[in-house]
């Protein structure tokens, strides 16, 4: 294990504890700001995620967005590979995917232009600390090589840190939306 790997592991451990506390204290309506942001992108193909453990839950916003255009959820294809996104609709049949996240029973893949990204920690420079598999970094790099792709981190405000241990392969976020505010990193 190299030094950066160890530093990231410690940062994740501390961030998971902060996220757990924020999740337990979260009031209803935590996705309100995310709904406001996405209202400006009605009909644009997007992907979010089915929350696991203590992740902030985008499900209400996903249901709203699905009334206007395609919404998908990430499907892990294998270690070292980018994610694929399968079309999701409210009430669709689901099955358990890798790491316990629910995914549509039937795969119907498409490429989103907006990704609502889960995270463990974020900073005010657009940095994101994920779970360590690099799935979103590979995926964003691939999608951004084809077209403009908006990456929106969705997190509790308590997940913010001053600075993250980042690598050159870490893809930046365009904005972070919390239960309290919208933080944009675009010029």
Helix content: 25-40%
Please outline the major beta sheet.
8 strands, mixed
How many DSSP helices? 4
Quantity of strands, as a count: 12
Radius of gyration: 16 Å
Q: Which overall shape is indicated by the principal axes computed on the Cα atoms?
A: globular
Encode the helix/strand succession as letters: HHEHEEEEEEEEHEEE
Average pLDDT, rounded to a whole number, is: 93
Major sheet: order of its strands? 6-3-2-1-7-10-11-12
The share of residues in extended strands comes to 15-25%
Protein structure class: alpha/beta
Our measurement of the CA-to-CA distance between the termini, rounded to an integer number of angstroms, reads 36 Å
Seen as an oligomer or otherwise, the chain set is single chain
Low-confidence stretches: none
Keyphrases for this structure?
187 residues, 27% helix, alpha/beta
Describe this structure in words.
The chain is 27% helix and 21% strand. It starts with a helix and ends with a strand. It has an eight-stranded mixed sheet with strand order 6-3-2-1-7-10-11-12, with helices on both faces. A two-stranded antiparallel ribbon has the order 4-5. A two-stranded antiparallel ribbon has the order 8-9. Strand 2 and strand 3 form a beta hairpin. It has 187 residues and is α/β, with parallel strands linked by helices. Helix 2 (32-39) packs parallel to helix 3. It has four helices and twelve strands.
């Amino acid at each position: 294990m190299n030094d950066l790997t160890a530093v990231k592991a410690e940062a994740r451990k501390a961030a998971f504890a902060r996220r757990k506390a924020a999740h337990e204290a979260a009031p209803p309506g935590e996705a309100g700001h995310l709904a406001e942001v996405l209202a400006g992108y009605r009909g644009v193909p997007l992907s979010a995620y089915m929350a696991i453990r203590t992740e902030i839950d985008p499900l209400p916003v996903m249901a709203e967005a699905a009334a206007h255009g395609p919404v998908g959820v990430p499907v892990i294809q294998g270690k070292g590979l980018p994610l694929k996104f399968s079309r999701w609709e409210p009430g669709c049949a689901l099955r358990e995917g890798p790491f316990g996240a629910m995914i549509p029973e039937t795969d119907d893949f498409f490429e989103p232009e907006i990704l609502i990204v889960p995270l463990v920690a974020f900073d005010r420079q657009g940095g994101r600390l994920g779970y360590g598999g690099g799935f979103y970094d590979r995926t964003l790099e691939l999608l951004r090589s084809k077209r403009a792709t908006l990456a929106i981190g969705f997190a509790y405000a308590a997940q913010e840190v001053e600075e993250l241990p980042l690598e050159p392969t870490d893809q930046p976020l365009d904005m972070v939306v919390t239960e309290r505010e919208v933080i944009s990193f675009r010029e």
